[in-house]
Amino acid sequence: MAAAAVPRARPVPCLPSAIRGACRTAYLCSRSCASWASDMMVNTAQFMALYAWYSWPNVVLCFFGGFLIDRVFGIRLGTIVFSVLVCVGQVIFALGALLNTFWVMDMGRFIFGIGGESLAVAQNTYAVSWFKGKELNLVFGLQLSMARIGSTVNMNIMGWIYSRVRDLLGYTGPSTLGLTLMIGGVTCLFSLTCALILAYLDKRAEKLLCKEQGKTGEVIKLTDVKDFSLSLWLIFVICVCYYAAIFPFIGLGKVFFIEKFKFSSEEASAINSIVYIISAPMSPVFGLLVDKLGKNIIWVLCAVITTLASHIMLAFTFWNPWIAMCLLGVAYSLLACALWPMVAFVVPEHQLGTAYGFMQSIQNLGLAIIAIAAGMILDTRGYLFLEVFFSACVCLSLIAVVMLYFVNHLTGGDLNWSAKKREKLQKVAATEMEEQERLRCQNEDDLAKLQPKADDFSLRNKYLSKLGAQMLVTK
Length: 475
Hints:
With 475 residues, the chain is mostly helical. The protein is built from 19 helices and no strands.
């Protein structure tokens, strides 16, 4: 009888979190290979194009990932299909390195990108399906933390695996790199295994608990774009400009610390991963803090200023880089918790799917372009100009935050309300809706009382009229 017991919901967030962490680890395999680009005889611009090839398909797929899960595959099959795409993409990527064929590596990254972002949508759908109304914020925080743990493990382990493979083969080159990437792809198989287990648990819950299969709930309408407010467009600008100075920098950071600060390979990997190490525990904490205090714009402003200070320190000083990178990790965690929820404050609920899809789309477009530009700048002008470029991106983000503050203030927006004020107004709105509903029901009851009651004769005529019989008229 124990086998027929109702499955518990609490262990489930571990599985979607594991899917994300494993997928993230494989995604970052190429990132930790930044110092191995010489194995493939490619320059930095070509290496950074690997990030662009991941982002290109998601410029479009961010709009349709939810649709595919809701209308085509379903959550269970969709998660498995996207996990398989991730595995196939990683294998092709590793084979490209083994064969010393760079275009094959690009193709592998493209396929990986097709599955990667849509897999994140599926994972979030599972979380909402199982935990809506109970511990959902905690579950999302755990998922983000797991992704950061995957990033940290990759940055500190892949270099060691590469060294072991190199010692085993006795030389460096495409074969060493290819085998290392193939080993890293084992995490994709772990992600696929979690997807299969989760599909089984969700199917079992559907039978035993009469639980419906989860859906994204997203309704994508491109025509909604014309209705986006200025505040939302400024949020998009902040998102693109800020993350353009984070992800490409971390992608090139290991070699930067080796060349400028004379760190060893292991030390460079450690400091380059500190952003994700800090983000793993701090993301749920900052999420709770922003929930309790509100003032989202102020938190975003603090995060952007701190990030700008970090890049300036790295560019123009030789201070201990651990200080700047720790500040960057704190700022990165804080911005994610304060920026993304703001979309829900400026967009009607029926447009949320379009807004978030568009936000992810232009973020991927921006990252693809910036990644290629960063590689070209590094090849031609060096790390100093690259850091100036990243600082300029953060400055644009800072200008957008300041503009958002004034636009929100002038339009009477709620982006910078305190949590207490927002909660108070929500209660007032809820009370008004309840009063309107009560009045509506009362009016319906009053109208019902005013209508004459049907006697037996009128009921008989009504029945006969439905049969097409001749009506009797009394005078």
